[in-house]
Amino acid sequence: MGTATAQTLGELARVVGGSVDGDATMAITGVAGIREAQPGDITFVAHHKYLRALQASKASAVILDRRTPADRPAIRVDQPYLAFATLLTHYYPRPRPAPGIREPVTLGKRVQVGKDVTLFPLVTLGDDVTLGDAVVLYPGVFVGSGSSIGDHTVIYPNVSIYDRVSIGRRVVIQAGAVLGSDGFGYVQGPDGRHHKIPQVGGIRIEDDVEIGANVCIDRATVGETIIRRGTKIDNLVHIAHNVEVGEDNLLLAHVGISGSCRLGTHVTLAGQVGLIDHVTVGDNATIIAQSGIAKDVETNAVMAGTVAMPHGLWRRVQVAIPRLPELLRTVRALEQRIAALEASLARATKDTHDG
Predict the structure, then answer these.
(1) How far is residue 171's CA from residue 150's CA, in Å, rounded to a whole number?
(2) pTM for this structure?
(3) What are phi and psi of 15, to 5 degrees?
């Protein structure tokens, strides 16, 4: 996965803040995975289980931690995976389209557009929309009235941003996402019919958030639905009205968060996790895939299962499940033996009294 521009191993070590173990003058032309790497590439090992794969790798150099033995020239760092990501960005920066407006574009009244903005065809901006500097809106993006988008934010094709949505700086929103659709709010009347509760609030997306393809984030009933700084949201996630997601969360695919939940900082929700409404999840909590959360989760907890239980208990339950038929047979046999012993003891007691 090489490029036309070669750099020395020493130069790359300075990019990632590492040290060179071996030939610092070696030319590196690209960055690649351990199995895909070719001569001229640098790869990485972040876990000892990949050392065998490294032995077979064609990579000319490797990124390692400070202690793992090297079988070829290496860059030593504290976090190899982070250094790998840094070099990927260094070698393969995401191209930025040239600034300008590509017609046809629809602009509402009192639209404010910053410097070096790129608007692709079929972008629609409602009234009183504000775009910061260097914003990129790809084809088919709709931005509703009163919404704002911060500097250096990139929004990919066919994203729908409803009215009164505030988006911060350096946000990335992948294709097909919907921000600001009505929250699922209904009240049942005496006639048994469901009457809509107007959803008149907004959404606030803070700086450095990334939102995956086809994510849906509902506007608040009143107030705001909030996604705080640095949170990363995978594809196909649903976040309901009035949810507050804390800083630096990871929300993986198919997560569903019901209304008015509160997530602390550095929370991880793995794939297909579901939260009922009004749940609070503490800082640094991790919820294992396909778990269902029906009550508050403490800080630093690791939860799993439906309904979720402490992860250690869940693991013991999973180990026990395949043995249940055998355990049931054992219990029945023990019950029969106990019954036989009790009967024998009763007869012996009777014989003693009779004697």
Answers:
(1) 8
(2) 0.85
(3) -60, -40
